[in-house]
Each structure stands twice: as C-alpha cells, then as structure tokens.
Known about the structure:
The protein is 45% helix and 17% strand. A two-stranded antiparallel ribbon has the order 1-4. The protein has a two-stranded antiparallel sheet with strand order 2-3. The chain has two domains: 13-57 and 132-142, no CATH class; 68-126, no CATH class. The two termini are 25 Å apart. It is of the alpha+beta class.
Amino acid sequence: MTTKTAALDGFQDIQTLAIEKALATKVAAAAREGIEPGTYPVDFTAHIVGTVTVGADYETRLVNKAKPWNLVAALLTEVNRLKAGAGEAGLDIAKLVAMAEAMDPTLVKAAQEQAETEAAGIKAATLSTAKGKVTTKLAVTPA
C-alpha cells in the first residue's frame, strides 16, 4: 500500500516506515556540531537495507494516574473542604506527618490495597488497542 505524505509521496508504507526508523538515530546532534549556521542545498541518494519487523496489535490500558502524592493531595483537599463546610479549621499537616510516621503497617497496606482496587476499576474501562511495536535492523549508506 502507498500512503500519500507531504515529503514521501511515491514510497510504499513499509518504505516510509523504514526511512523514518533509519533516520531516528542519535547521530544528528553530533553531525550538527560540525556545521556552521547557514542554508545548505542537499541532493543525495541514500541506500537503506535491512529488515523492518511489525508486531501484532495488542490491547493496553491507560497508565494509572492516581499517584500516591496525588491521592494525598486529593484527600487533604476533600477533608479540608468538608471541615470548612462544617465551620471547622483545616488539617494540621505537621500533625498528619507525625501520625503517618507512627502508622500501623497493616492499616497502610489495607489503604494501599483499597486505593489500588479503585484505580483498577477505573482502568478496566480504558482498554484500547495499540498498534504493534516496530523494530528494525537497518543500515544507511551513501548510494
């Protein structure tokens, strides 16, 4: 199949993929060091040879966004909102830190498991199909 692209019209899709992968190397920064500022005309032919392996599509889930500190921030915000609604002062963070240091590990583990269960429930609905991974073994030489 041939897909029309602005810069690569006329190439087959697998050729376009090979060109992109062959050029996605880390040598550009080193090459740039030896080039003075300016505009340079280029017209050359390169030879790309090797293999492109395209993996099967696969199912994936969104990354869990409920990081521990995000969860702490959300908890503090919600508790302070509830306390303010009841006409009470906000939480004493220094006191909470001291309590956390002395927290029973069993309670911590239970809270962690509950949070992970809730996050898993949210992620369960985020199943999507991702395109298969592409790996290459390519050599680029002047033609």
